[in-house]
């Protein structure tokens, strides 16, 4: 059997990185994972051929990758986080040994900057929430008098905000709710010293609807979509439980999502995220994530293996086609899902969106029922690869023993690949 092109995955500490390992490794791809610590989730996967702890500084990490590329000769490189993608894009010229499975700097900038994203959305007819970007406190005061509350605050470019606010000892929040003009202005005043302000958006009721698309040469090679059933925090954040939707649901909206990515000249994977109101059928664009998304485990469980599609498209140069997948599966991220339940049971007063009302009994019953629901899946647990879940459980309980990570430069035996292909 001809050896597979190896894949290097930078960022195997999360369920996203773990899922990339599982998808690639179950297809016989030799996977070298790089984590921040030896007991990271991905380090315990049976599909990981070799694990490395990442170097301590940005420059040292690039050197680590350059040396790894020289050793491997040729490999496909995946990066999970936006910060790592940004770093690698600044050093593309030094990563010539790798076929890069993530978008370049120009394309990433187009989706990280929400102002540019919303401008592109307007050009293709995608609805966006009313958004204000004050340039001063005078602008903020003027806007505050005309807004409908609550409003949601986000940063147009989170990385730039972090750079400007760090010297002031301020860490920008990803999302913030304000329920009155006075609350809004009080929150904005500390940012005046840096002369930078977040976007102020009208509140859009409903559920998170994510449409996931692999684009190549202006065409959608594969699509998938889900509905966020639960989020952490409960008022809106990231998905703690989501469900796969049929391919023909929201067809018109999917066409608009494709048009939006085409307008941005996008290449690679992206999640186009909307706030969808089931009562009105309206959807408003929230953002585009130009990377593998948090609910990637759901797509993998459903049969939409985007990491392997990226490997084939950008690593091997193959043309990939739409994959069939299972609709109606639910996938739970148990730690935030449990935190969500506890917030609803005991701390409903801390839920920032005061319009939300939850039945404690119904939420508790649903939480327990999902353990026996046939269509339930999990972000971390998998019968095919259970060790990451049990190691994570032991670490959370404070019972884990330090196990040596597979950090040595050990050759990848062909027998291991054959076994993984047979069992995958």
Automatic annotation (TrEMBL):
Residues 118-317 form the ATP-grasp domain. InterPro entries: ATP-grasp (IPR011761), ATP_grasp_subdomain_1 (IPR013815), CPAse_ATP-bd (IPR005479). Keywords: ATP-binding, Nucleotide-binding. It comes from the Bacteria. Gene3D superfamilies: ATP-grasp fold, A domain, ATP-grasp fold, B domain. It holds the Pfam family CPSase_L_D2. Coiled coil: none annotated. This is ATP-grasp domain-containing protein. It comes from Massilia norwichensis.
